[in-house]
Each structure stands twice: as C-alpha cells, then as structure tokens.
Prior knowledge:
By secondary structure, this protein is mainly beta. It contains 5 helices and 24 strands.
Amino acid sequence: MHPYPLIFEPILKEKIWGGQRLASLGKNMCAEDADDNASPPRIGESWELADLDETSIDGGGGGAARSMIANGPMRGVSLRDAILAMGPNLMGAVQTTHMGGFPLLVKFLDATENLSVQVHPSPAYAKAHPEAHLKTESWYIVRAEPGAVIYKGLRQGTTREELQKRAADGTVAEAMQALPVQRGDFHHLPSGIVHALGAGVVVAEVQTPSDTTFRLYDWGRTGRTMHIEQSLACIDFAHTDDPAPIRGDGSARCLLNDARHFAIKELRGLGGEVREHDISADLPVVVMCIKGEGRIEATDDSFEPVPFTAGTTILSPARLDAVRMVLDRDAVLLEVDVRG
C-alpha cells in the first residue's frame, strides 16, 4: 500500500469531570441515538490515535481501543491493520509495542472539573508488576479559563509518610504544586510524578500507550476505586525538576520537549508557510492541529490533498516523499516525532 497521511475517527470517552468544550475542536458531542431530552454527555477525552489491546483506569482489564482510518483508500481500516499493511512505509525504523501496536496514545482532554490526583507506574513498580505499564505523558494547554491551574509534583520536602496521612484525611492538594496555566503552556510528566488537571483546562496529550492510572485523591467524590498503596509505591518523592511550563518562542518551529519515546515541536503558520516533509529521520510523525487550518499535499499527485482544521490529528507515514504542509497564517500545530 502506497503511504499517505492518515486521519482517524476520534474515540470519545464520557467522564464525570468532562464537558462539552471539545466541540470547539470539531468533535461530535452527541450520540446519534440520544434522547432529545437527555442531558448532553460529559465528554472528557477524545482519543485521537489509539492502538491498545487492553484499557483500564484502575489497573485491571478492559476492552481494546483501536483507531479507525477516516480518509483515503484505507478508510474503515484500523490503525493496527494499517501497520500490518504498510509495514516500514508507515513505521519506518520505529518498533511497535510488544503486542504489535502503535507506540503512542494521543488525546484531547476537557477538564470541566478537577481530575483525580494520580500517578502512573514507575519503572521499578512496572518491573515488579507485569500487569502495570509505564506511562510518560506531555500536556499542551489548548484552552484555560481565568484562574485555571494544573497540579504538578509535590511541594519540596513532602515525604511518603506525610502524603499517606494526607491521603487519609483528604488534604492531598495542600501538598501539591498548583501552577497557573495559559494557552500555549507545555508540561512534561514522566512516570512517577503525581499530577492532576484542574478545572477549566483543555489539553492536547501525548503519552506512551498505557492506560494504567493509580488514584491518590479524588476531591471528595465517592464511588471510584482509590489506589493509595500503589500510588505511594510509584511516586518519585526525590523529583526536584522545575515545574514551570515550557513555552514556544514564537518561531515557525520550536522544540518543546525531546524525550525517549517522542519529541514534540510547536509549529506556527506565520503568514502561510510551506513546509517540506523531512523523511531523513525515517520516523512517523503525528500532527495535531491546535488552531487554524492547513493541508498536506503531494507534489507528485500521489495522493489527494489532506485538509485539516483545529482538532484534526494526522499520522504522517515515515516514508512519505514529495510532500509538503501548507499552513494558514494563524495556524498552531504540534508535531510529534514517534520513536517507540
């Protein structure tokens, strides 16, 4: 199969903390068979690019989640089957997961309420517990209401004993670093960093393909499983990195983070730039349109132009050649180099 840029059907997830703001990113927020008098669904997550054999928020088993292609000759084919069909043309030098899946999970999130304070498995915990999988993630702030914050890391000097006590008496938030946020802020969250999205924030999230999450505190909500001991076992109490956000420098392409599994750049249109696709790295690239619009086109007419607007996520195969990206002057995109 000749490679071409792939767009996928979003997988929408209802959450008790979700809302309706993902509609501004082009998501269809209402089910086709919904009752006209029913309350609108509280959509918390739009899974843009997913290839998981199992999903869970509680550390147990769940169903598979596979993105389906929405454009071109492979419309209706799953991402997993596209990997099998295109092989190196799609993945280049990148290895799939141990189950043969795509090595990233990409989402948009809408936090109308605070998300639970949570942590993902540390390397040591994952090694000792094969059912738990490492999860490192990054957030790019798409929208933030006035006064909105995120919670990232613990206050300096917080000990395991103190946090265990606070988990019991409901004061965990007092040990967290609450950081004001604004559109364009970027935060990287390695495994072991305790964190939570605050109310009023919409983010683009790029993460390694794990849905293993341990809840430490849930703001007084009841009825959801907590994982105090697992959380305490995974938190990196020695982490001392500056929690301040990274921001792009306003240039056409700015590197935000260069991590083991993925690198993220911020792209800006700056008057309608044309970008040639770089195939030298032999890596697939994920493009998330945050604002504005544009298109990816083949200079040799090998595929139909692929337009995109805010909320569109595109997977650009590793071995595309004779291709360029055309952006309008207001466009803001994230460009994610996939490393596996």
